[in-house]
Design goal:
5-stranded antiparallel β-sheet; 5-stranded mixed β-sheet; 497 residues; 17% strand; 12 strands; alpha+beta; binds adenosine-5'-diphosphate; elongated; 4 domains; Beta-Lactamase
């Protein structure tokens, strides 16, 4: 019944006040409405008891007023009776008002408690989902954000967010993107969105995704409400996936080589062993005091037969490797290149290399195996990227580019990969496609050899061009297919990848 433990003292005070009023009312001859003072008792009771207690207090006060009247006025006296009624009415009205006030206070307390709970709930879900909310006015107006936004930006909760602070935390490379969305919000665009990086004071980088919608417009000011998500974990996962895809594509050539080498070793080993045995026998026949030329000739015949067998085995394996299960379907080269560019895009942007697509529209289809041809293009792109990387460390060089272009050359489609790396010498260009030729510490020197074998199996040719100035250009041609395929390429000439 008591609202708080400390209110016991106040309760005693209220009781004493009640008794005092009753004593004065009942036992003194004062000709005034003393009982009206019970109103004070009722009001004091609101801070001591609950609503039920206040109601009982009101009832008790009214009863005491009537009791005191009965004690002091045995006959019917109109004026004291009127005073008694006024006092009872005042007590009743005060009690009702006090009860209504208490009910309103309780409702308000409940509402503020549920507001506090929902704020705590929102803060914890924002923390778990790493998503914060914010509000800002454009152009250049005030900004408010949730606790989680302060945490994402790595500033204290007491720090007032400003555009300058947002800019300071944004990775300098992404300032143009930020300026772009600020300009959009200054124009009052309905939705603004930005994926960018934040650079923390300790040098770590966070990837964030911001999206905001125009909520209101007053006095030429646009008010935006938005969400800011820390997507670093998702970004990291996507990076790993893309890295794995690129590595997988790169590893395919190693696997192909491994399988090829194992089968060659297996098939060729037998005739080679026979050649060696017959060679030794031939030497022995010739080294005799009286050389047996007939036997030596027979041994040499067997050597020739085994050599022929070995070369046949190799021919067969090469034929197998060329034809294999490779498909020959009509392909749109531009689509194939766009798909391939998408595969290596992340790897390229990690090395701050821009891939420019310069694709001739309306190319006829080529007949080929999409996977194999994609492997060729990935190889050329990876080589170009490694050449650029090897020339200077990433932090020293300006942004570099690789241009991937297509053109029609008679009845052939030519695909060209030109980079801004250190280029090729005449000597290098001559040896590039030799198996096991590499200038890289961890290179195998088989990538371009396999590329050549795939391109030639498609009836095309591959070459490296030596030109003045930096950069290397490798190009390959593929004959156009007889069948016409729907050309999905459009005028993307010059469009960045
Ligand atoms: P690997 O990449 O394992 O070395 P490759 O056959 O793919 O094998 O390449 C052979 C060599 O050709 C490379 O080691 C490199 O010296 C040279 N090369 C290939 N592409 C380029 C290029 N775009 N710029 C400069 N050199 C290149």
């Amino acid at each position: 019944m008591f609202q708080s433990p400390g209110s016991k003292l106040r309760a005693a005070g209220v009781v004493l006040l009640t008794l005092a009023i009753f004593a004065v009312d009942a036992f003194t001859a004062l000709d005034i409405a003393i009982a009206v003072l019970y109103v004070v008792v009722v009001l004091c009771a609101t801070s001591v008891w609950s609503r039920r207690g206040v109601l009982l207090t009101g009832v008790a006060c009214a009863a005491l007023t009537v009791g005191a009247f009965a004690l002091t006025h045995h006959g019917v006296v109109s004026s004291p009776m009127a005073r008694c009624l006024v006092s009872v009415a005042a007590i009743a009205i005060t009690t009702v008002l006090a009860l209504a006030g208490m009910a309103a206070t309780d409702a308000l307390r409940q509402r503020s408690e549920s507001l506090r709970l929902s704020e705590a709930f929102l803060a914890s879900t924002q923390r778990i989902s790493r998503t914060s909310s914010f509000r800002f006015q454009a152009p250049g107006g005030a900004m408010h954000w949730s606790e989680e936004a302060a945490r994402i930006y790595g500033v204290g909760l007491e720090v007032t967010p400003t555009q300058a602070l947002v800019r300071e935390r944004t990775h300098p490379d992404d300032w143009p993107l930020l300026d772009d969305v600020i300009a959009q919000s200054d124009r009052g665009e309905a939705t603004i969105e930005l994926r960018h990086r934040l650079r923390m004071p300790d040098g770590t980088v966070k990837h964030v995704h911001m999206i905001a919608r125009l909520a209101a417009v007053h006095d030429g000011q646009f008010e935006y409400l938005g969400a800011l998500m820390d997507v670093s974990a998702a970004h990291e996962a996507a990076e790993t996936l893309h890295r794995t895809q690129a590595e997988l594509a790169h590893a395919t050539r190693v696997t192909t080589l491994g399988e090829l080498a194992a089968s060659i070793a297996h098939e060729v080993n037998q005739p080679l062993a026979a050649v060696s045995t017959n060679g030794n026998a031939c030497l022995r026949w010739l080294n005799r005091p009286e050389p047996d030329l007939l036997e030596a000739r027979l041994a040499l015949d067997r050597i020739l037969a085994d050599t022929y067998r070995a070369s046949e085995v190799i021919q067969r394996i090469r034929a197998l490797a060329r034809k294999g299960e490779a498909q020959r379907l009509p392909l749109d080269v531009n689509t194939l290149l766009r798909d391939t560019a998408a595969l290596v895009q992340r790897e390229l942007s990690n090395h701050r290399i821009v891939l420019e697509l310069n694709l001739a529209p309306g190319l006829p289809p080529v007949a080929g195996d999409a996977v194999q041809l994609q492997q060729v293009v990935i190889n050329l792109l990876m080589n170009a990227m490694q050449a650029i990387d090897g020339a200077a460390p990433e932090w020293l060089r300006r942004q570099q580019r690789i241009v991937l272009s297509t053109r029609l050359d008679g009845d052939q489609v030519e695909i060209e990969v030109a980079d801004s790396g250190p280029g090729l010498s005449e000597l290098q260009a001559g040896r590039l496609f030799e198996a096991f030729y590499t200038t890289k510490a961890d290179g195998m020197g088989m990538g371009l050899a396999i590329c050549r074998s795939i391109v030639e199996a498609h009836g095309g040719s591959i070459r490296a061009m030596v030109h003045a100035g930096p950069g290397a250009t490798l190009a390959f041609t593929l004959p156009c297919a007889a069948v016409k395929v729907e050309d999905t390429s459009n005028a993307v000439t010059g469009a960045p990848a």
